[in-house]
Amino acid sequence: MRLVPLNSPYFTITRGVSNHPEGLIAPGMHVTCTVTFTPPSLCNYQEEIKVQSDSGYCLTIPVLAVRPAPCLSLPEVIECGSCLAGGRMDVDLEVKNSGGEGRFSVRATTHHQHHQQSPTQSEGVLILGPFTVSPTEFHLPPLHSTTLQVTFSPAAEGQYGEQFVIECDNGETLSFSLTGSGDVVSVGCVSIGDSSLQEISQFTSDGNDADRSNQRGVDPVMSAVDYDLYTEQLEECSVVFDVVNPRSPAYKTVVIRNYCGVELPFCWKLFRPITELSSSGEEDPVLDDLVPSVNSPFSVLPPSGTLPAASTHTFLCQFLPHKPGQYVDGCHLVLSQVPEVSLDLSLEGEAWRRMGGDDSTSTCTVSPVCLFLSGVAQPYVLELEPPALLIPVAVPLATDVRRRVKLVNRSVSRLHYCWREPLLDEGITISPVSGSLVGGGGGGYCEVVIRRSVAGEFALNLICDIEHSTHPVTLPLHGWTQGPQVSVDCASLEFGLVPLGTSSQLTLTLTSHTHTSLPILLRQAIGTQATLPSTSRTGCRDSETDVTDHECIHFTPSSLTLPPHTVTTLTVECRPLVTGRLRSTVRCLVDDQVIRCLAVHAEVQSPRVVLTECVVHQDTAYVGVGCERRVQMTNTSLIPTLFSWRQQVEGESRAHCSVSISPSSGSIGPRQSLPVTITATWDSTGSHPEAILCCDVEGMSEPLLLVLSAEVHGLAVSYSVQEKRRGSSDEEELRLEFGSEVSLFTPHTLHLLVTNTTAIPTTLSTSLSSFPPSHPHLPTPPPPPPHRSRKKSLLSRTVNIGDPKSKTSQQANKDYMSGLLQEGRGCCFVVDPPTSTLLPFTTHTLTVTAYADMWGDYHDTLSCQVSGLEAVEYQSIVVSPVVHSCSTALHSHNVASSGLAVIWPMALQPRELSASTIQDLKRCVWTGRCSVSLGRTRVASWWTSLPP
Questions:
Q1: Range of 113's domain?
Q2: Of 409, 417, 432, 678, which has the fewest CB atoms closer than 10 Å, so is most exposed?
Q3: If you average pLDDT over residues 842-851, what whole number do you get?
Q4: Do residue 512 and residue 407 come from a single domain?
Q5: DSSP states of 758-774 as a string?
Q6: Higher model confidence: residue 372 or residue 939?
Q7: Could you give the residue ranges of the DSSP H alpha helices within 97-181?
């Protein structure tokens, strides 16, 4: 068997492999051949495979290569609808593939026929006249969809149609048609109210007259010449409203027709009428020339929206004025984003008006229809019959007098009225108070009721307000009322002096001279004035001020019924609330009518205490020392009262001040002055500006204030020496100079003066640094010998043998000095007294006594310690005595009775020069308390020491 080679280059077949070496196939056996298909595109292909045998039999096997064909859901005719000339319309088409997968290409019909690219086709966009199709190539798997966008942009008015094909990659070609209509703007007013308009406001850009008449629905009977006359005229539709009253609306219906097949967005705008602009000499206005109408009473509903294509739209024009007057406005129907090519520029300002434009988009805003709105608003007119009410006879008190008044509405619209309420004390009521009247002569009635409670002539105007009107209607009313006759036994109520917090009573007699019972009401007049001399918080008087006391007069009974020609008595009580000269008025009322007025006089007082001094300043005060000041408390009223000073001190310096007051409490009589002693004690130095003392006075709302201030000084002590050296000054160092005349065993005394220059008592203590007495507690000094006669003086020198402790004065002084100098310093100083008290403003004398049992130059420091200051102060005073030397006594066996050595002459016996040394034994007695050294002069050198 032999395979015939294939004619198609897209199909290839492999030769079968047989087990026989010569390629023979036994019956029942088979050979496998492989067919390979290599297509250059996705089209359908056919081929035949021929197998020839040796017997001449030829077997033909057809081969078919086919894929599922795609199926697109796209109509054959695509309607884009109507679009304004120069405008643009986008149509989105959903293309769904319900068949096999394919790749598609959008081509123009000429491209499909000539198999070459169209010059109007750019990358991704196919331009077919006014139509634009995109995308030009797309791929759709099965059951997938894509969007095919068609843009229709007609350049002029008319019908447009184009064709294009969609080629599939399997070789199939689908043809489609695009149709659209180019239209122009055509809007007109059909009717106003119930009347039809013969003149139609319209404008077109181009096209013949016959086409215009057919497209705009013009009556076929109307000739083209008549239609042109209509289109050449400027159509301003006048809307005249009926005469109305303020806030009464009037309506008109305006029907606008859109003759083109395109929906047009619109809005209504109110401007000043064209007649006003043209009368001022202006040319055809544009948007910049038109003046918007502010607070216009006209409105169009709906104010904005969309005009449906080729149909009418009904608008409601409303006229709602707020006040009377004549109103005229121009209302323009404004279309925005209108292409200029759809307008006839030669008719601008006649058939349509330009309201603005955009050069970048070649569009403009136009007004094809202008409504001339006019209306008149008249004020409301309400007539009253009669126009005034005059009461010729006297009106009795508390008696109703009724009068009817007719109201007639002479206005066009319904009128709503409301009577104002008269004054309460006039006694006038109107019913009904409010209501409404139909227009055109509608009427109604109101009743005026007069019930007077006040006697005398009355004249007032009853005012009727009309809704939405600024001019009310006035009804004058005039009459006279006769009042009751009641007499009082006194012309005024004199209460005299009334203490605040108490009451005073008087009796009042009323007599009726009328024939009817009278309801009597006694009431104090509101706004009673009292003159009150006010007092400041510190107790010092201020200027007089006026105060008001509303309820200080009370009546028992406060109201009663007085029978005809009777006399009644009632009690008037005054309970004042404030002090001062009360000058008030009491009214006697009958049915709220004042028939009598009584003056009320009272002198209302409360205890009022003042201080002669509100501020007390102490120039010199001392810490811890009370400083007394005396102030006067004066009761300026006629009422006795009690007072009490508070113990607590207030103010800035309250922490540094303690005060005692005498008397701290008590009573003070009328016009009495009471002295008060204030003792203030300060605990710190410096300036204390404010310490406030409060005194509570019974009957006074605020306490009296006394302000204390002081300049407080501390403790100060000065020192001086009574016996000053000659030539010394006060600025030199303070010294106690005993001089060089101090003898042994002889006391020498100096006086130190310590002066307390303040009023602060304190204590003084002294101490010595080098030569104090031997014992901490000084021995008792011997008493000074009294002045006696010579005989008794001699007896005092003799010791009393009967008293074992008896001593002579010399022995007592010697023992006292021995006790002071027993430590062997050779000198000591005794201060008498060692401690003392320094009284205020006094000088204290300290006696400083020097005792010495050894010669020499002594220096010591006397320290004075003063307590009571902020810190302990020591005053050091230099003490410097000079003690002259003592002599020794040389004798053989005797001691001088005086205790001081006496120099005895030493006589040596004569000897020869060649003889041995001459010696003479002498005894030296030292009576002093200290060790001394002895030396020789003009004899052989010797030196020895003598113990005490």
A1: 77-182
A2: 432
A3: 88
A4: no
A5: SS--EEEEEEESS---S
A6: 372
A7: 109-114
C-alpha separations of 412 from 242, 250, 299, 407, 409 in Å: 10, 12, 21, 15, 8
Query: Is 222 in the same domain as 364?
Result: yes
Picking from 459, 482, 505, the residue at the C-terminal end of a domain is 482
Asked whether residue 254 is domain-assigned, the answer is yes
Three-state secondary-structure class, residue 208: coil
Residue 703 located in a structural domain: yes
Quick one: average pLDDT of 786-797? 53
- Token couple for 447: 């009743």
Is the domain of 233 the same as that of 342?
Answer: yes
* Confidence category of residue 432, pLDDT binned at 50, 70, 90: very high
Q: What is the pLDDT of residues 439-492, one digit of tens each?
A: 888 999 999 998 877 778 889 899 999 999 989 999 999 988 877 778 888 888
The pair of structure tokens assigned to 325 is 């007057």
Beta strands in 4-157 (DSSP E): 11-13, 35-37, 45-52, 58-65, 77-84, 89-96, 102-108, 121-122, 125-128, 131-134, 137-140, 145-152
Structure tokens at 249: 């609306």
Alpha helices in 370-443 (DSSP H): none
361/238 same-domain check? yes
Alpha-helical (H) ranges within 797-852 are 809-820
Contacting residues for 868 by C-beta, under 8 A, at least 6 apart: 624, 715, 760, 761, 762, 763
Average pLDDT over residues 555-583: 87
CATH number, residue 341: 2.60.40.10
Please tell me whether residues 466 and 506 are part of one structural domain: no
Query: CB-based contacts of 931: which residues, under 8 Å, 6+ apart?
Result: 945, 946, 947, 948
In the three-class reduction of DSSP (H, G, I as helix; E, B as strand; rest coil), residue 853 is classed as: coil
Comparing C-alpha atoms, which of 467, 470, 412, 410 is closest to residue 244? 412
Residue among 262, 260, 242 at smallest CA distance from 251: 242
Nearest by Cα to 656 from 716, 714, 715, 712:
712
pLDDT on residue 539: 45
Task: Kindly tell me if the per-residue pLDDT of 10 is higher than 70.
Answer: yes
Please state, in angstroms and rounded to a whole number, the distance separating the CA atoms of residues 545 and 542.
9
Q: Is 680 left (phi over 0), alpha (psi -120 to 50) or beta?
A: beta
Neighbours of 168 (CB within 10 A): 21
Tell me whether residue 798 is in a domain: no
Residue-level pLDDT at 820: 83
Query: Which of the two residues, 588 and 882, has the higher pLDDT score?
Result: 588
Would you call the peptide bond into 432 cis, given omega within 30 degrees of 0 as the criterion?
A: yes
The CA–CA distances, whole Å, from 114 to 110, 171, 310, 590 equal 6, 15, 42, 122
Contact 447, 404 (CB under 8 A): yes
- Domains in the chain: how many in total? 8
Tens digits of per-residue pLDDT, 85-116?
888 899 999 999 998 888 899 998 864 444 44
Q: Residue 255 corresponds to which amino acid?
A: V
Give the residue from 375, 364, 367 showing the smallest Cα distance to 351: 367
* CA–CA gap between residue 338 and residue 205 (Å, rounded): 12
Going by DSSP bridges, is the β-strand pair 363-377/236-240 parallel, antiparallel, or unpaired? parallel
Tokens of 225: 């010449």
- Spatial distance between the Cα atoms of 548 and 578, rounded to a whole number of angstroms: 8
227/283 same-domain check: yes
Which pLDDT score is estimated for 793? 52
pLDDT for position 199: 36
Peptide bond before 21: cis, by omega within 30 degrees of 0?
A: no
Structure tokens at 711: 């300049």
Pairing of strands 615-622, 704-713: parallel
425 and 456 co-located in one domain: yes
Query: To the nearest whole number, what is the mean pLDDT of the chain?
Result: 77
Residue 917: Cβ-neighbour burial (10 angstroms; 0-12, 13-18, 19+): exposed
Place of tokens 């009128």: 415
Please check whether residues 221 and 365 belong to one and the same domain.
yes
How would residue 634 be classed by pLDDT, with cut points 50, 70 and 90?
very high
Size of the chain, expressed as the number of residues it contains: 948
